[in-house]
Amino acid sequence: MSAIPDKIVSVRMPESLVKELKALAEKNHYLDISEEIRSILRDKWMKHSDPYSDELKKIRKNLAKVTVPEKIDALKTDLKKLMEGLDDIR
What we know:
Number of strands: 0
Largest sheet: none
Radius of gyration: 19 Å
Number of helices: 4
Order of helices and strands: HHHH
Structural class: mainly alpha
Number of domains: 2
Strand content: under 5%
Low-confidence stretches: none
Helix content: over 70%
Distance between the termini: 34 Å
Mean pLDDT: 85
C-alpha cells in the first residue's frame, strides 16, 4: 500500500475558534492546532466510517460496571437498541 501524499488545506475560522483550538492543542500536548485539527478529523472520520464501533465501546464500558445477572439484562437491552437502529436504517 503506497503512502498518500500530504495535502495542504486552508480554512477560515473565527478568532475565538482559533483560541479554543490552541487551548485544546496545548491541553492534549500537540505542538500546534494543525495536529489538534487532524486528531479531531480522524476521530470524526472513524465514527463516521464505523458508527457502531463507538456504540459498542459504550456498551462494553457500561457492562464492565455491572454484575453478571445485570450484565445479561443490560446486554439484551443494548442489543435490542442496536437492532432497532438497524431496522430504522432499512
